[in-house]
Design brief:
It is built from 12 helices and 9 strands. The protein is α/β, with parallel strands linked by helices and about 300 residues long. The chain has 2 domains: about 240 residues, 2-enoyl-CoA Hydratase, Chain A, domain 1 (Alpha-Beta Complex); about 60 residues, no CATH class. The strands form 2 sheets. Strands 1-2-3-4-5-7-9 form a 7-stranded mixed beta sheet, sandwiched between helices. The protein has a two-stranded parallel sheet with strand order 6-8. The N and C termini lie far apart (about 50 Å).
Length: about 300
């Protein structure tokens, strides 16, 4: 490898959004601690993609294994957004399901999921949808066994479709400004509801509706982090330590928060309207607000509802 290529790899590895799945895992975990399960050398590829004459990837876009975070053992799964947009297929999903089932059986080792996905592969629609259901069941089983499951979101593909559903089942989420979380992607909404409902080409609209800042402000993510490995590493450690147990009381509290959110913001037409209703001064300045200033604002706006969480 040339010196230029090496320096470029180091630069990308420090930046979560631009990094590959393996670079994120390496940057997140303690140096040299990662041990991959079902690695590329085993060539567990999708059985469906060849039917469509589509290229395969030897890890099927999902990296799973174990390692250490600040000395403590963790299980980790990272989606490769550069391969088919990180979309869920049969093998891709099965690797995450297996990891979560292992976590359930171990009962004590936290799971970190590095989301980077556009949803389910259209070429594997039935298998992909089934994979989402199996992952959610395995995730909830793991949480019921006392395992914290923390999601980290900040990749190119965002966290859409079934990935958004899985993220919603996690113990806690950390998101960067570049991260986006939604069940339906911008193009899906526009296709089904029309451009008058949602203009997928309006990038400012997309980011203020689905982006990390909005998700943090409305409580869809517990931490807002900067776009660095160090930021996500610190957030992962904090969320693992403070992850709430899955119990009836926590589910009831979450349901109450959602009902209050609809009552409070149900008539809002835009995220700007939501931020104004929350009491944010100069709501229109939030998209361009620097990281530290936004974190302080989010903490301040959260304070009145913090006890209800």
């Amino acid at each position: 490898m040339s010196a230029v290529a090496h320096d470029n790899d180091l630069r990308l590895a420090a930046n979560w959004y631009e990094a590959s799945a393996r670079q994120r895992v390496e940057g997140l975990l303690d140096a040299g601690s990662f041990e991959e399960f079902i690695g590329p050398e085993l060539r567990e590829t999708s059985p469906h993609l060849p039917l469509f004459d589509l290229p395969q990837q030897f890890d099927d876009g999902m990296v799973v294994g174990r390692g250490r975070l600040s000395g403590a053992p963790v299980l980790v799964a990272a989606q490769e957004g550069r391969f088919m947009g990180g979309a869920f297929g049969e093998v891709h999903g099965a690797k995450l399901t297996g990891l979560l089932r292992a976590a359930r059986d171990m009962g004590t080792v936290p799971v970190l999921i590095l989301f980077d996905t556009g949803g389910v592969r259209l070429q594997e629609a039935n298998a992909g949808e089934l994979a989402i259901a199996e992952i959610i069941r395995a995730l909830l089983d793991a949480r019921l066994a006392g395992v914290p499951v923390v999601g980290l979101i900040g990749g190119r593909a965002g966290c859409y479709g079934g990935g958004g559903l899985i993220a919603g089942c996690c113990s806690a989420l950390a998101v960067s400004e570049q991260g986006r979380i939604s069940v339906s992607g911008p193009e899906v909404i526009e296709t089904n509801r029309g451009v008058e409902e949602f203009d997928a080409k309006d990038r400012a609209l997309v980011w203020r509706t689905m982006g990390g800042k909005h998700r943090r402000l409305i409580g869809g993510a517990q931490l807002f982090v900067d776009d660095t490995m160090a930021g996500f590493r610190e957030a992962a450690g904090a969320l693992v330590q403070g992850a709430p147990a899955l119990a009836h009381a926590s589910l009831a509290a979450a349901q109450e928060r959602l009902e209050q959110r609809i009552e409070r913001f149900g008539e809002c037409r835009d995220a700007l309207d939501v931020w104004q209703a929350m009491g944010a001064p100069q709501a229109s300045a939030i998209p361009g607000m620097p990281f530290e200033e936004f974190v302080a604002l989010a903490d301040r706006l959260e304070a009145p509802r913090h006890d209800a969480r």
